[in-house]
Amino acid sequence: MRADSHGLLSEDGSKATLVVLGTGFAAFSLIKEIDVDAYEVTVVSPRNHFLFTPLLPSTTVGTIEFRSIIEPIRTARERIQFYQAWCTDIDIQKRTIQCQHALDKTMFILPYDILVIAVGATNNTYGIPGVEQNALFLKELADARAIRQRIIECFERASIPELSEERRKRLLHFLIVGGGPTGIEFAAEMHDFLVEDLREIFPSLIDDVRITILEAAEHILSTFDATLSAYTIKHFERQKIEVLTKSGVVKVDAEQVFLQDGSTVPYGLLIWSTGIGSTLLVQSLAVLKDKHARIVVDQYLRIQGFTNLYALGDCATFHDRMLPATAQVAQQEGRYVARALNRLAKGKQLEPFRYKDWGMLAYIGSHRALADLAAVKGRGFATWLFWRSVYLTRLVSFKNKILVVLDWMKTLIFGRDISRF
Fold first, then answer.
1. Which of 28, 229, 385, 418 has minimal Cβ neighbours within 10 Å of its Cβ?
2. Mean pLDDT by 10-residue block, N- to C-terminus, for the chain (421 residues)?
3. Which domains does the chain have, with CATH numbers?
4. Contact assessment for residue 58 and residue 145, using Cβ atoms and an 8 Å cutoff
5. Are 66 and 145 in contact (CB under 8 A)?
């Protein structure tokens, strides 16, 4: 590439081609701020929308509707090209990527001058037998819909006459493996669904319902302040949500999980929320990676040894420090790279990336939330109001903000829908 007064140019004198892999927080933030007058921007992702994942647990029980937290990529920014496809291989020498269309499996090749890899991560099963076949994950909108369907299915099946007590109790046991924010928030949303809606709809079943969280470590919410973790445990005890720490899973079948101590736990619905792993694309790349198979980047978020390759979000890590795999990190990285590329197009010098920690939030049910901020360790009802206001302001479009507010109002007035279709 070379530059003139109008920005970076490819070898043939046209605008430099910027290819972005992914549509998560990092990629979406970059797309919103990149200068389309300076670059020909192409986005490649098997998902044709951006998903506001912090509110994803709320969709599993109908507190918020699915389409209220997504934004189509094609309408998010003018003058970008989008392909709904998987990137299956990257030829660094030829500066091309090989893609497979997500719908009809057609293969095609795209050239790039600058490539941004923001493909996120996958669910980490740690190779435990039976997890892929029997557990449900909570990472995409399709996952949330599957969980919502399964919850209603469990109640409908448990209501069948002459069903054995053992089978009924198994169907009504909602088991979450993983005590991180996602698992905790799903447990909280499930509790609200039970107390506010299902108690009246299935009164004869409610006494048999159980919610259990299994955590392999000694504490839940390990990234939060210890006082907030302890508060959550006590709060869950009042809600009759059982938390079992030091409970590692070694095997899963269709009706129960097997623990390290030899005991078994039956379930009707199993949510697996134990962390993230690298994607097949990232695993296949011949670039420097850390022990967790994440791409190592420098202070400008460039892949070590390259000036035209960037990696952002959950698939990347810095060579000298580790940042949490959160939406705010990915969002800040995406904005930084967009602004850095805009500055490069104008021939300006770059400043290294600096992460600003805004703290962490989590919903724990019954209109209570946690806020782990630098100056405040908040909890309770007032923190729940703060949690809602923060997430509402962080939604990416005015349409999303309106839809989420209407969903909250609808849930408050009419309750959550239990239709299964």
1. 385
2. 52 83 97 96 97 97 97 94 98 97 96 97 95 97 97 97 96 97 98 97 96 96 95 97 96 97 97 94 95 95 96 94 92 97 95 94 98 94 97 94 98 94 81
3. 2-121+278-345 (3.50.50.100), 131-275 (3.50.50.100)
4. no
5. yes
